[in-house]
Amino acid sequence: MPRTIIHIDMNAFFASVEQQSNPELRGKPIAVIGSGRTVVTTSSYEARAFGVKTGMNTWEARQKCPHLIFVVGDNRKYTHTSSEIVRIFLEYTPLVEVFSIDEAFLDVTGSLRLFGSAERIAYLIKARIRHSFGLTCSIGIAPNKLLAKLASEMQKPDGLTVIRPEEVSPVLERVPIEELCGIGSRTHRQLALFGIRSCGDLGRFPVEILRRKFGVIGERLHCMGLGIDDSPVVPVEEAEEVKSVGHSMTLERDIKERKDILKYLLQLSEMVGRRARRYGVAGKTVHLTVRYADFTTFGRQQTRKTPTSNSEEIYAEVVAILGSFVLTQPVRLLGVRITNLCYQREQLPLFAEERKKALATGAMDLVNNKFGDFTVTFGSILDNEEKGSHVISPAWRPSGIRNVDVK
User: What's the rounded Cα separation, in Å, for the pair 225 and 265?
Assistant: First the structure.
């Protein structure tokens, strides 16, 4: 049976949420930025009309739009709104795959008999989101995820585009290959060397040459050019097992003092450990990520003999990794992650000192789960003003182990 897939993309999500929260910002050009930072996270459509784009420095954005209004982002507001919007999606189908904080795929194949048509479902969802949150979204409807995402990009903002099975070939004939999800700038440049500019070109190009150039990805590229995509819509509860648990934090200001770096690493280690304990996983390999002020990013890792979810043990490994190299610039971002995960049954340690530590950790978790992060924490990080992640990872999901409490 042919599938019917809907892709929903919230329009200028962060900026639109801010405009709805503050009526004085509505209809005005705004740019959402990080606290203490100078880079545009996203901008409203009024600002985009002047050429303000994501990733611009604030001074450059101000040159493009002298009357631009900068708004410090509120990530908790965005994740809460996203979670509530996903609840609306689930009223129309249980097959909802959250692609990012502002995008989702819905498989409505089994819902058509109940609601009449995919277009009707799309209009109902649009109306619900506008009524409940004052927000708009662009929606694409197609036989698969690849084409549904392509369709949602065709009419922005607040658009609705349908690509029917019989329309796939003529539509793709004129679509530039870089507009397909999954074709990045590097692949785009490599394909251009073969004279491949449109999806029609890609579909007609000999698949044998694509295989020789790109390996197993060559077959996938050929299918993309033909509009073929068999990947299912995967709800959170059916997603593959998580292979890592981590947190990263973009700092309010660049720091270079070791004592300041250690405070943030302890905070990140506690965030990673508590989330790992909540879901009953432990990791053998501990990773540290550092990003300098000039955006140079690098990572180091260290593997333990036994897996752990204990925050202090994670922190000890991170400190050891930090001591293995010399920082040459002020630090902009820090990240801590554990991999090589295994699931553990909860049991008290054999020795009294370890048992005491485990009970104390469990008590901290109970309090923090009930009253909020860092209600009870280590004394050495009490003077940290930053209590959460300042970036929303692309892996963020509204529920499950990928759900990260952000500031």
Answer: 45
